[in-house]
Amino acid sequence: MILDKEQLRANLDEVIWNIEEARITVSEHHIVKLVTVAKYTELENIRTLYELGQRAFGENQVQQLKERMAALEELPLEWHMIGTLQKNKINNLIDLRPALMQSLDSIELAQELNKKLEAKNSKMHCLLQMNTANEKTKSGVSAEQAVDIYQEIKENYPNIILKGVMTIGAHTEDTKLIQQSFETTHSIYEKLEKDGATICSMGMSGDYQLAIKCGSNLVRVGSALFKQK
Ligand SMILES: *Cc1c(COP(=O)(O)O)cnc(C)c1O
Fold this sequence. Notes:
By secondary structure, this protein is of the alpha/beta class. 43% of the residues lie in helices and 17% in strands.
């Protein structure tokens, strides 16, 4: 559905205001980045959000990322890959040079990605995805292994530049459980700060305020920005 500019402006204002309200409870100095998840929306809405000042966009499929980067090439947008990366799509993703690959979810993927980056004499900024909700349907490394795997990637896979962690909150109505998964992720992020981690990516349309209060400094918001009143 293509939304008109006033609708998108109202949605964006609401999200920005909610982010503001949450981040100020953490600290005046706590800055939060908004990445618009465009996967369910039309190209036209991305263009309009750009006109409204939004610059960072995320996609969860390499093919769609490629098409949209090409279609919107003239705009100075920052693109994030946020979905599971299939091994046979690694080369395509490298060629797209995304600003940040948020879904590096296993040591095996890191190894493959590093090998292909090396072959192309290229580097990629990545986040280590953690499955702190412990859900079988979610990918990501466990909280127990996250610190070791992060350091292993840093030491052994030099073409991957790790910038922090990403998680998807627990899929439940139980706010306590969602909060727990965010708190676990944030405590691991804090341990990794000495290894140079600067990004703690957590929070989506249903839970970004909670995520920010738990220390998130990057939220990935989709449906809340594309609702039609
Ligand atoms: C789809 C998606 C989002 C955004 O979800 P909304 O609930 O629509 O805000 C955020 N992160 C990831 C990894 C996603 O796949």
